[in-house]
């Protein structure tokens, strides 16, 4: 139901504020991506991180400790690929950390062990489904091994287990916290990515709905144009042929016939301007539409064109919805147009319109029937069926018993 009352027999087609509404909708569905580093900024960040850590590792060279410096560099350099190959980088750093115990022996921590929490964070954030839990197990084992190595030279065998608890917990706290932060960051990335994809899908669906609505509107206008042009031109052709034959016998007949042709042409042009006006955004889009009681004008127009029409219409036209009235009017218009075009020059038509729980229409002619082929192609019958189907009605068209053609339609109220 429209929120604004419509004038009787008018169709509301809002156009002026359509661009404003579309822009507001587009702003509402435009995905808002949280601030994050771009690809170039990420490369610079990783480069500065690796270079800074390598600079710390070079301090071992200044202290005449080349072996710890080499081990530290072997742990820092793989961090350059921590985003694209996080699981492999973690495995390399973990292996290098394990090799540290073998190569350097039981010694103090070296600066290269800063790579382990960074690698744990990276695999927690960018690692695969199975690499994340596996890396957590490796991290806990590495913390125990590191604590065992660090306490080997400060504690005896009797109290070694007691003394390694504090270093193990400290190491695990740093490494596991880094891993947990990485997992949380990965979940956030996936959640943001899903929101962006959902907003993008919503935008695409909105664009598709707009395109489908425009396509439906173009199809409706095409049907309207077909009805107007086919009906108006067929009337004008019949009247022109009649005037041409009658003028040879009685020239006075040509004058009123030409006036009727001019009136029909002006009415068709006005109807075409109304339809074309729907395509112009600078107009309001409010145009009067034919109603059910305008069927009587169709009958008068057909008779004026020389067609033999016997019409049975309601004495008092009941009030019906505008859409139903327009559909009924177009069905009668197209049916009479088909009689003029296909039934033959001497064909007579019978029109019957009744209104009870539905608008019932029947148009029968005694012309050439199926031989004329009115249902073989074209948009007329298709347009009638579509109009009736919109209102959950039914329509049939085919040869009549004894010859001719019959069009029947029922449009529920």
From TrEMBL:
Q: Which reaction does it catalyse?
A: ATP + protein L-histidine = ADP + protein N-phospho-L-histidine
**Which residue numbers delimit the Signal transduction histidine kinase subgroup 3 dimerisation and phosphoacceptor domain?**
217-282
EC class of the enzyme, as a word: transferase
Record-linked InterPro entries: DUF7134, HATPase_C_sf, HATPase_dom, Sensor_HK_TwoCompSys, Sig_transdc_His_kin_sub3_dim/P
Report the GO molecular function annotations: kinase activity
Which Pfam families does the entry link to?
A: DUF7134, HATPase_c, HisKA_3
Give every Histidine kinase/HSP90-like ATPase domain span.
Answer: 327-413
The segment annotated Disordered runs over 1-25
Q: Ranges for the DUF7134 domain? A: 44-183
- Enzyme Commission no: 2.7.13.3
Is-annotated flag, keyword Transmembrane?
no
Keywords tagged on the record: ATP-binding, Kinase, Nucleotide-binding, Phosphoprotein, Transferase, Two-component regulatory system
Please indicate if the UniProt record lists Kinase as a keyword. Answer: yes
Q: What is this protein called?
A: histidine kinase
């Amino acid at each position: 139901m429209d929120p604004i009352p419509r004038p009787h027999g008018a169709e509301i087609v809002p156009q002026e504020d359509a661009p404003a509404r579309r822009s507001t909708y587009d702003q509402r569905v435009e995905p808002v991506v949280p601030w994050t580093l771009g690809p170039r900024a990420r490369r610079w960040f990783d480069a500065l991180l690796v270079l800074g850590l390598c600079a710390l590792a070079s301090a071992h060279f200044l202290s005449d400790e080349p072996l710890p410096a080499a081990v530290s560099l072997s742990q820092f350099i793989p961090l350059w690929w921590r985003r694209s190959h996080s699981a492999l980088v973690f495995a390399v750093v973990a292996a290098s950390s394990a090799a540290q115990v073998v190569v350097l022996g039981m010694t103090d921590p070296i600066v290269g062990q800063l790579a382990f929490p960074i690698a744990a964070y990276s695999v927690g954030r960018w690692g695969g489904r199975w690499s994340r839990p596996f890396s957590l197990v490796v991290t806990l084992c590495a913390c125990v091994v590191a604590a065992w190595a660090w306490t080997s030279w400060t504690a005896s065998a009797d109290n070694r287990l007691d003394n390694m608890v504090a270093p193990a917990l400290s190491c695990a706290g740093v490494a596991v916290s880094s891993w947990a932060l990485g997992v949380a960051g990965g979940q956030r990335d996936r959640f943001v990515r899903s929101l962006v994809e959902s907003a993008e899908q919503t935008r695409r669906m909105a664009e598709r709905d707009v395109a489908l609505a425009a396509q439906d509107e173009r199809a409706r206008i095409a049907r309207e144009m077909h009805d107007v042009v086919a009906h108006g031109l067929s009337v004008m052709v019949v009247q022109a042929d009649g005037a041409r034959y009658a003028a040879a016998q009685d020239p006075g007949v040509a004058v009123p016939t030409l006036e009727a042709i001019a009136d029909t042409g002006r009415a068709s042009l006005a109807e075409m301007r109304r339809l074309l006006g729907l395509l112009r955004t600078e107009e309001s889009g409010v145009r009067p539409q034919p109603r059910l009681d305008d069927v009587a004008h169709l009958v008068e127009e057909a008779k004026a064109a020389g067609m033999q029409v016997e019409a049975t219409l309601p004495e008092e036209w009941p009030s019906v919805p505008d859409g139903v009235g327009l559909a009924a009017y177009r069905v009668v218009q197209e049916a009479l147009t088909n009689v003029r075009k296909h039934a033959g020059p001497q064909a007579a038509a019978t029109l019957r319109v009744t209104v009870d729980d539905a608008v019932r229409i029947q148009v029968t002619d005694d012309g050439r029937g199926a031989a004329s082929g009115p249902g073989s192609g074209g948009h007329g019958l298709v347009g009638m069926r579509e109009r009736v189907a919109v209102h959950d009605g039914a329509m049939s068209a085919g040869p009549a018993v004894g010859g001719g053609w019959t069009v029947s339609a029922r449009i529920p109220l």
